[in-house]
Amino acid sequence: MDGGGAASTVQFDGGGWDLKPSAVYYSYYPFIGNMYLDRTHIPVSYLGQKQTGTTGVDHIGLCDFMYTDPASSPTGNLVFNFHHLSTLLYVNATLPAGTYTKLAITAPSEVFTSKGYYSLVASNPAIVSTENSNQFLLDLDGITLTEQSTFRVYMMIAPVNLNGVEVTVSVLNKEKKEYQCKKTPSRAYEAGKRYGLTCNSFSEVPQSLGLIVGDWGDGGTIGGDAE
After folding, report:
1. Which of 11, 122, 205, 207 could form a Cys-Cys staple with 224, CB 3.0–4.6 A?
2. In this structure, what CATH number is given to the domain that contains residue 181?
3. CA-to-CA distance for 29 and 75, rounded, in angstroms?
4. What is the CB neighbour count within 10 angstroms for residue 25?
5. 188 is in which domain, residue-wise?
6. Region of 76 on the Ramachandran plot (φ > 0 left; ψ -120 to 50 alpha; else beta)
7. Starting from the edge strand earliest in sequence, which strands make up the sheet with 203-205, in order?
């Protein structure tokens, strides 16, 4: 790659093979190391995302699934225009001092795509869900607040219609204290766009309440008062 890092365009230069003028070529991102991959079934997974630090964004690239329109090569060059299949969601969270280890967004039904696929040769490629969940979970590392302050977390999710759906944003710290706020987005979250939730009023949730968010490790599940 000669240039284009951290930019919206990039140029690659290679050799040792020819492009056929009569052929149609496709491209996708991120790369999956299987030369016999079915171009009608490119697998995707939104599981295992982890943000490091309050400004960390390196984790979103592996779930920023992209495809290109078919391209031909009459002159020996290819130009690929990439399109985003995922949605970038961020949460502005205002929380007390502490070290935070997980963030979850929980909906009343299984609206979040955990795994799926898309077809490069479809007329309008889109994520087809094969596994769903009512909860999206993001691991956090290196996020320590010395006083109450606001930090931002980023995650890549499949497009989802959350218009009028009340969701619970829950955060866990390393002392297993759990905080939550409730938000009701007013739109569908579309592919290739960025959306945000602001949670500036969290309620600490006692462990004894029988909480709604599961799989905290040693913690329980979360409930509590609305924002």
Report:
1. 205
2. 2.60.40
3. 24
4. 13
5. 28-70+82-209
6. left
7. 50-52, 135-145, 98-106, 167-173, 178-183, 203-205
